[in-house]
Amino acid sequence: MARWKNPSLLENERERRRQYQGRLVQKLPDGGTGGVDPRDLDRALLEQVHPPAPILDVVREKCLDCSGYQPGEVDRCTAIACSLWPYRFGTNPFSNRKGNAEALIRARGAKQGKGPLADEDAPGEDHGSGAPALPGAEGTP
Q1: Contact 80, 102 (CB under 8 A)
Q2: pLDDT tens for each residue of 16-44
Q3: What is the pTM of this model?
Q4: What's the number of domains the chain is made of?
């Protein structure tokens, strides 16, 4: 079971991680503090502090942290500018693996070299999503 599904387990996990603060937070030359770069840590220590977990579970855990560990507040979150907002339920709404059988069938057909996606989806094509183009993307100033 994911830690975020049980608030008491999540709080116990946070308390356990706090024990490592002295090893993972460093004093900066300006007198402030900052977290060490996890890429520079011994992998065993990193896994001891933060056991590997599916990324969507990690996102859900952060959303709970942001909302005071109230699942109902995560559900009602209005911080739509947050990059994690679409993933707050611990799922990927953009995934074609579940719930979008038509897209999955089309993708499988394209992968096998047949079906509508195999011929029509060229890289850089505009598919008319209505969303503004990102600066620096192909075909934008």
Answers
A1: no
A2: 999 999 999 999 999 999 999 999 999 99
A3: 0.58
A4: 2
